[in-house]
Specification:
CATH topology of the largest domain: Archaeosine Trna-guanine Transglycosylase, Chain: A, domain 4
Radius of gyration: 19 Å
Order of helices and strands: EHEEEHEEEHHEEEH
Number of strands: 10
Mean pLDDT: 87
Oligomer: single chain
Helix content: 10-25%
Largest sheet: 7 strands, mixed
Shape: elongated
Low-confidence stretches: 215-225
Structural class: alpha+beta
Number of domains: 2
């Protein structure tokens, strides 16, 4: 593998779906919601809530060996009456499954279906937020600076409290609400990174400090619909 090789992190809702991946060596993606990174060299798998002790983490990955189109009823003949039985899916063929020595975990529950990243980030990541490539150099620097100061920011965070929904570069949950950094407000120099990090630390302190992972109630929200 090369550092710049593409990795697509894909959602697996249920253990039965992963058993199909393990047993038959392919993964299905609805054509209507297929990501642009379908040609990634590697597919990694993010486990949903139903995986219990293994939930909200990446434990396995495999090489992408190509794909073809098929109807759901042909992929899953035991479910002929499924409401999406006639929908078109990508059948992504996989190489041998590889298990990570250390899972890449989500410190907080977050709604996701796909994440695009690179092999070097994937190898070095310890948590989901380490994977994101959106925002470029200075969102990386700001995220890393906050992390060094003990502030676990959420990257590429989807704000669903308003309509329409929107995505911010960084979001930090505090006792008085979230502190957010919009993509348009990202710094564009090293000095501005440090200055913005200092300002965010002060705002977070005024809002009662961060809400530690595991202390929020987001885990009860519905997951992505079953595929």
């Amino acid at each position: 593998m090369y550092p710049e090789d593409r990795v697509l992190v894909a959602y697996v809702p249920r253990p039965s779906d992963f058993e199909l991946i393990r047993r038959e060596g392919w993964y299905r993606i609805p054509q209507r919601s297929a990501p642009k990174g379908l040609h990634a060299e590697v597919i990694a798998f993010y486990f949903g809530r139903a995986f219990e002790e293994q939930k909200y983490a990446i434990h396995y990955y495999a090489r992408n060996a190509g794909h073809e189109l098929a109807r759901r009823r042909d992929l899953l003949p035991d479910e002929p009456n499924h409401p999406r039985a006639d929908d078109i899916y990508y059948k992504v063929q996989l190489g041998p499954l590889q298990q990570l020595a250390q899972p890449i975990v989500s410190l907080r529950w977050r709604r996701l279906t796909f994440i695009h990243t690179t092999w070097d980030r994937f190898q070095e990541a310890t948590e989901i937020n380490d994977l994101f490539i959106e925002g470029g150099l200075y969102v990386d620097r700001l995220y890393a600076t906050l992390k060094e100061r003990g502030i676990p920011a959420e990257r590429d965070y989807r704000v669903a409290e308003t309509q329409p929904e929107y995505v911010v570069a960084l979001s930090v949950p505090t006792r008085a609400g979230r502190v957010e950094v919009a993509y348009g407000d990202l710094p564009d120099s090293e000095g501005e990174v440090a200055a913005l990090a200092d300002a965010l630390v002060q705002v977070i302190a005024r809002q009662g400090g961060i809400v530690l992972p595991g202390n929020d109630a987001e885990d009860d929200r519905p997951q992505t619909p079953d595929w």
